[in-house]
Amino acid sequence: MSIHFLLCLLMVVVVGHTVQAKIKTRRSLENAVQKAMKKQGSRHEHDLSTYAANVILDTTQILLDKGFTIEEVTSDTIAADIREILLVVGVVKESPKLRCKPNHPYRTLNGSCNNLDHPEWGQSVRPQRRVLAPAYEKGSIGTMRATGINGKPLPNPRKVSNVVHSNTKGVTSNSTTITLITFQFGQFVDHDIITTPLIDDETCCGPNESKDCIPIRIPRGDPFFRDG
Ligand SMILES: *[C@@H]1O[C@H](CO)[C@@H](O)[C@H](O)[C@H]1NC(C)=O
Ligand SMILES: *[C@@H]1O[C@H](CO)[C@@H](O)[C@H](O)[C@H]1NC(C)=O
Ligand SMILES: *[C@@H]1O[C@H](CO)[C@@H](O)[C@H](O)[C@H]1NC(C)=O
């Protein structure tokens, strides 16, 4: 037997193993997506993005429970595989290819074609890019963080808001220097870079409170809201 032959044999065995592992991983991913879809139940066509987000969240959790690490689940190869599976089962839809007019004098209303190399970047109804790694509540992949790194509960968000935005200059709604555009600009920055409301029409008060609600307690002595 030549050394060449042995090497080839070894390659076949190694490649065979890799292919096997790939098939096994692919099956696990498909099973996880199916399970997540079952868990979510019926989908509402008008709210596909919420449905997709929940399926992806559940898929991630199922894979973590199966022993995948978060680095594996979010790796480019596995993320691409999951995306492909979600396309096949119709949880996400391939968006039609955008055709840009490079010399068009105006911007598009929905932000498409701002970047001619990546026409979909910054378009409306697209996921926003994370600036920092996610830091959810310890051991969770989607629960709002309520515990600090020192293990103590984080301060009440309303309290933080009141401290950070304290009206030290005593601006009133009759201000002659601050107009409505201030609020509009804040809203624009807010919705453009940090938050896209995904969940509509949720009942967040009373007995039928949705699981997606995260109530904030009003601290005693709040300058705007009554004591809660
Ligand atoms: C954005 O607008 C372009 C036309 O300017 C259209 O082709 C595209 O589908 C729109 N995208 C979304 C997400 O509505
Ligand atoms: C704003 O002006 C109106 C009319 O002059 C007055 O009734 C109201 O109390 C003022 N509001 C504040 C917050 O100063
Ligand atoms: C809560 O949901 C139940 C069942 O759907 C319904 O009968 C009830 O009226 C709801 N209550 C409120 C306060 O909306």
Automatic annotation (TrEMBL):
Residues 1-21 form the signal peptide. It comes from the Eukaryota. Keywords: Signal. Pfam families: An_peroxidase. GO terms for biological process: response to oxidative stress. PROSITE patterns: PEROXIDASE_3. The keyword Phosphoprotein does not apply. GO terms for molecular function: heme binding; peroxidase activity. The keyword RNA-binding does not apply. This is Peroxidase. It comes from Potamilus streckersoni.
